[in-house]
Amino acid sequence: MKFESRDLVVRYPGASQPALNGISMEVAGGCLYAVLGPNGSGKSTLMRSLMGVITPDSGGAYIDDREVHAWDRRELARAVGAVAQSETVSFPLTVREMVAMGRYPHLGPLSGEGDIDREAVATALSECDVTDLASRDVTTLSGGERQRVRIARALAQQPRALVLDEPTISLDVRHEMAILELLRRSADSGLTVIVVTHGLDLAARFCDSMMLLSRGKVAAEGTPAEVMTEETLATVYEWPLEVATDPVSGTPRVTPQRVSPASSRAVR
Amino acid sequence: MNRLTLAGFLIVTLLAAVLAGIRFGSHELTTAEVLAALTRGDVAMHRDIVLGLRVPRTLLGVMVGGGLALAGATFQALLRNPLAEPYILGVSGGASAGAVIVISLGWAGLGSWSLPLAAFAGALLAIVLVFRVATATGRAMDVRVLLLAGVVIAAFFSACIAFILSMSSARTVQNAVMWSMGSLRGASWQSVLLATVYTVPAAAVLIGLARPLNLMAIGEETANYLGADVEGVKRTALVIAALITAAGVAVAGVIGFVGLVVPHGVRLLIGSDHRALLPLSFLGGAAFLTLADLIARLALRPGEIPIGVITAFVGVPIFLVLLRRSMGPSLGGT
């Protein structure tokens, strides 16, 4: 699937600066695309705009050349699995029930879950390594476990694209790598995968191309090697850092520098 | 617990409660006399008591209790908050203000068709206000914001009622007091019919929305991503839940906490899948209010306790436990 935004401008009421200020991008099928940037740079707003949850003030978001609001919500949910940054579960709900919600767009108004649906749920559970948790109450899980359950729910949608807002947040090394490998495999099998993340180094290792956002504008876009230069990153993140090539992976690796206590207070 | 087991248990409890509601009352009749009144009806006084009072009163309890519990479960899903309930949110207060206005203007007696509509208008106004206030703060799902909004809206409507009553005749005042206390005393076949005509179709619509409500209960953004028509579901469910509440208030006044206690209990036993939660809450609410009314009638015989007293005695402790849990230890420092 092809995701596209054209000159997207989003302004939140009461904010002096627009959250997104003229973002144009295009992500083709089979691409693993990372959206990076400091806190408040507009990453989540961009994701919500691409998914049509936010209506932009001007410009537009397009999925397969169709304006995102022109999509029927259920049809869109069959095509794209999206996971928001956070959600609050205030009621007891088992992991299996939670993941089975991914089947909602595939079910008719009265039809129950069939074999295909149960199989999709089982596959999603095992791909995210949460099969053992299937009967557990979601509210009792750790942050990382819950995160994997939510990704499993998106996989249960059996989508042709994934849009994930900080999917590996609060995951340990093993599960973070496992999820990223899963996303890489998904992209290799033809899915479009868009990931909002703070993990520069891992994004460099896994993604095909990336966008660096700064205050609602595109600071840089391209391959990891093109985007992750010392000058660009230091300017965008407002912190001195060094970029080296990782001897193991051969991709850019960022080392933020220590600064004296006085100037670190000044930045805060 | 298994859903079917719970359904069976609730149906048996409801039937037992209904039978007990018909068998017992402030007037002492023997089982034989009750049966005779139901079948032959040859003793006019017994027939009037059983068929004219007890049966409609019991059936009204079923409708109102079921409706309130269902409305509570729906508000909870929409607001993602186990404390949301028609009474706490001020929706019942809005409905009673609407009812009192119509009565004081002399447009309606108890059981008239215009009464539920006026109550509906009040209920709708209340839920829209609460929702607006809670969303405008940008922290719609914050328990404190929601509860405060509900309390303030309820206070506003009770001030409206007090104002109207202070301008009204004594008879209206007496009539209107029932709305603030809550009672099934005014039950008649007409009020049963009225409650049923509004409650049953509304309940069917809400139960039909069970699946999207499942998604809404984990967040609107996520529900959107999973293909739910968030705005449509929200609007429909809010309006219908307000309608059910209004129908209950119009015939039985403000009865609190049914919509809190019952869905909470059902959720503890079978989890939060609304496909089961909603119908079972209806059954549970029906049984709960019928039993509460039985206690209301029998405990201080020949006097009567307002039914809202009993539901509050059960509901308030549960509310406090839930409040404590939803505020959580994380708030310790703030």
Short description:
The complex is a heterodimer of chains A (268) and B (334). With 268 residues, chain A is an alpha/beta fold.
Features of the shown structure:
heterodimer; A: 268 residues; alpha/beta; six-stranded mixed beta sheet; four-stranded antiparallel beta sheet; 10 helices; globular; B: 334 residues; mainly alpha; ABC transporter involved in vitamin B12 uptake, BtuC; 14 helices; disordered C terminus
Describe the protein in words.
The complex is a heterodimer of chains A (268) and B (334). Chain A has helices spanning 43-50, 73-79, 95-100, 115-127, 143-156, 173-188, 200-206, 224-227, 230-237, 261-267, and strands at residues 3-10, 20-27, 32-36, 58-63, 66-67, 80-83, 161-165, 192-196, 209-214, 217-222, 241-245, 252-256. In chain A, α6 links the parallel β7 (161-165) and β8. Chain A contains 10 helices and 12 strands. Chain A has a single domain, classed as P-loop containing nucleotide triphosphate hydrolases (Rossmann fold). In chain A, the strands form 3 sheets. Chain A has a 6-stranded mixed β-sheet, with helices on both faces. Chain A has a 4-stranded antiparallel β-sheet with strand order 2-1-4-5, covered by helices on one side. In chain A, strands 11-12 form a two-stranded antiparallel ribbon. In chain A, α4 runs antiparallel to α5 (143-156). In chain A, 34% of the residues lie in helices and 24% in strands. With 334 residues, chain B is an all-alpha fold. Chain B has one domain (3-327): ABC transporter involved in vitamin B12 uptake, BtuC (Orthogonal Bundle), CATH 1.10.3470.10. Chain B has helices at residues 3-23, 31-39, 44-79, 91-104, 114-136, 143-166, 170-181, 189-208, 210-216, 220-225, 230-252, 258-270, 274-298, 307-327. Chains A and B meet through α2 and β6 of A and α9 and α10 of B.
